[in-house]
Amino acid sequence: MGRTRRRTQVIDFLKVAKQLLVKTQGIITFGDGEYSERMENSPTYPSFFDGNLSHYKALYESMEWGFPSYLNEGRIAMETLFIAPFISSISWLQKWEEGRENVFSQNDLGLKGRKMSRESWSEVRELVKEGESPYGIRVEGENENEMVLEWKGIPLVRVSVWM
């Protein structure tokens, strides 16, 4: 079973980072490569489980699609080392229970979202060949401060910027 940081540890880190931003100027960039659907959208464990399953299936498919056939052994090694350990119904249950107890967003810390620039968005869209490939890019968040990389409409990675 893979190991990730607990949400409470992330919250504690963000609180310290926010205190540092009071004295200095800076930007916090937060990346989330896990299934991160809002808890209100996954009220039951089966819906949370299905979301995780879809997320990791999309991750596998995207790796399979993007690797040339002569690098199959490398792709399999990456899948085995970096994806397979995180596919665990036990850890998903723990994460779902923890999420129900600690519903939080970065807005709760008083951080202000910094809008993603059009240049960054265009650059990323060009990089993933949006429209020509199964990848897509979406900008979300109240301040358009969150960029989402998708595979066939399923979010793979979210990156948000805060001040």
Task: Present the secondary structure layout.
Blueprint (H helix, E strand, L loop, with lengths): L6 H17 L4 E5 L12 H22 L5 H12 L5 H13 L16 H10 L7 E6 L5 E6 L2 E9 L1
Antiparallel strand pairs: 1-4, 2-3, 3-4
Number of strands: 4
The largest sheet is: 4 strands, antiparallel
The secondary-structure class comes to alpha+beta
Please estimate the helix content. 40-55%
Rg over CA atoms: 17 Å
Bin the strand percentage: 15-25%
Major beta sheet, strand line-up: 1-4-3-2
**Low-pLDDT segments:** none
The run of helices and strands is HEHHHHEEE
Q: Label the overall shape.
A: globular
Mean pLDDT across the residues is 84
Tally of structural domains: 1
Overview of the molecule:
With 163 residues, the chain is of the alpha+beta class. It has one domain (7-162). It contains five helices and four strands; from the N terminus they run αβααααβββ. It has helices spanning 7-23, 45-66, 72-83, 89-101, 118-127, and strands at residues 28-32, 135-140, 146-151, 154-162. Strand 2 (135-140) and strand 3 (146-151) form a beta hairpin. The chain is globular, with a radius of gyration of 17 Å. The mean pLDDT is 84.
Question: How would you summarize what this structure contains?
Answer:
The protein is of the alpha+beta class and 163 residues long. The chain has helices spanning 7-23, 45-66, 72-83, 89-101, 118-127, and strands at 28-32, 135-140, 146-151, 154-162. The protein has one domain (7-162).
Give me some keywords for this one:
alpha+beta; four-stranded antiparallel sheet; 163 residues
